[in-house]
Design brief:
Structural class: mainly alpha
Number of helices: 20
Strand content: under 5%
Oligomer: single chain
Distance between the termini: 43 Å
Shape: elongated
Helix content: 55-70%
Radius of gyration: 28 Å
DNA sequence: GTAGGGTTAG
């Protein structure tokens, strides 16, 4: 592939060769399949001339994508300077859908080198294609180009990237790439954080943690969010001890835990039934001047109530309301169930009535979603 | 749109 890429670069540098590929290929076009291109152009408001469109279609129809065909495509794009972005996007789209991932990647790279950045969605097509075909080098290339072109990737792109590694245990290349990307994004940790998050979200917990270890070992960028993501990963995996160990290591790294760190910790400890530890960390967060919120109290009310400490559960519920934090249906549901469990049916009924009479002013999703920033 | 719930077993 590298050789043909080099070949293309050479042929591109010899601009005289462009004239060898005029748009005459349109003569060979048949009308089938033309219809899919037109709506695309009208939808983005750049209808190019129909001859270019015929050329687009004809040059790919049933042809093997040889270097000659690639050169022909590039010449077509070059000859359409006012719409080369759109035309390039159409070509790469079509090549991806036809399974010619490698050719699509080459076109993307050549246009990228010419500062022609195609529509982001074709990068995703390429990420998926490269992922399915296990073309890791291409995957890295597309990911990097996407980042350089747009500075920001969608969550979908990160997920496509991560999914490429589901079937492989070889992480040497991946870790090398992580270091590579880190140099590109230094000093921000954002891209690395999102990579870790995508690996976790696609069920690759071990690889997510491997990347984290690598980042720490190599002293790459790392911040509060990195730790919060890792705490969550360990908590969800039921690895409470490892989670607490990482929490302690935040101090050594000079990173101060915030309300999300503590909530992640408390909620994960709740899941494994460690109610006393929930309260201990709740106390610690108070000493450190971090204000608890609805999620903190929800985890504590449930944790204490479920382990039979119903008095503490009720006290926390009152304390929360005194602080002006509106309860949610989940707090009531939790209280009512746990009260019934210890035989306090009357009090449970009282809370049921209180809940029903205040349904309209209970906390909803907007009351605990992270603040917009 | 970089991180922490959504009938989390009820």
């Amino acid at each position: 592939m590298l050789r043909s890429l080099a070949g293309l670069a050479v042929s591109l540098s010899q601009s005289r060769r462009y004239t060898v590929f005029p748009n005459q290929v349109c003569i060979k076009s048949n009308s089938v399949g033309f219809s899919w291109i037109w709506p695309f152009f009208t939808s983005i408001g750049h209808p190019p001339n129909s001859f270019q469109l015929f050329a687009t279609h004809a040059s790919l129809d049933g042809k093997e994508v040889t270097d000659d065909v690639l050169n022909e495509i590039l010449a077509n794009i070059e000859n359409a300077p006012r719409s080369s972005l759109e035309l390039g996007t159409v070509y790469v789209d079509k090549l991806c859908r036809a399974g010619s991932i490698s050719a699509a990647g080459q076109i993307l790279q050549i246009l990228h080198d010419k500062k022609i950045f195609l529509r982001p969605y074709v990068y995703n097509l390429l990420l998926v294609g490269a992922s399915e075909r296990n073309e890791i080098d291409l995957l890295f290339q597309v990911f990097k180009n996407l980042f350089i072109s747009y500075k920001q990737l969608s969550e979908t792109s990160y997920l496509h990237f991560a999914k490429a590694f589901v079937k492989t245990d070889d992480c040497v290349q991946l870790l090398r790439f992580v270091k590579d990307v880190s140099q590109l994004t230094f000093p921000s940790a954002s891209v690395l954080n999102r990579i870790i998050f995508a690996f976790a979200k696609s069920g690759q917990t071990d690889k997510a943690l491997l990347i984290f270890d690598h980042i720490r070992r190599e002293k790459l960028s790392l911040d509060l969010i990195t730790y919060n993501v890792v705490l969550d990963i360990l908590g969800r995996a039921g690895r409470a001890d490892d989670m607490l160990h990482e929490f302690e290591s935040m101090k050594e790294a000079g990173i101060i835990p915030d309300v999300i760190s503590y909530n992640t910790l408390i909620n994960s400890l709740r899941k494994v039934g460690k109610s006393e530890m929930c309260l201990a960390y709740f106390s610690q967060m108070g000493k450190n001047g971090i204000q608890p919120d609805l999620l903190t109290y929800s985890a504590l009310i449930e944790s204490t109530g479920r382990t039979g400490n119903i008095e503490e559960s009720l006290r926390l519920f009152r304390e929360m309301k005194l602080k002006g934090i509106r309860p949610s249906v989940y707090n009531y549901r939790s209280l009512i169930n746990n009260l019934k469990k210890v035989g306090k049916d009357e009090l449970a009924t009282t809370f049921l009535e209180e809940m029903n009479s205040s349904l309209t002013c209970l906390a909803g999703p907007k009351d605990f979603k992270r603040k917009s920033r």
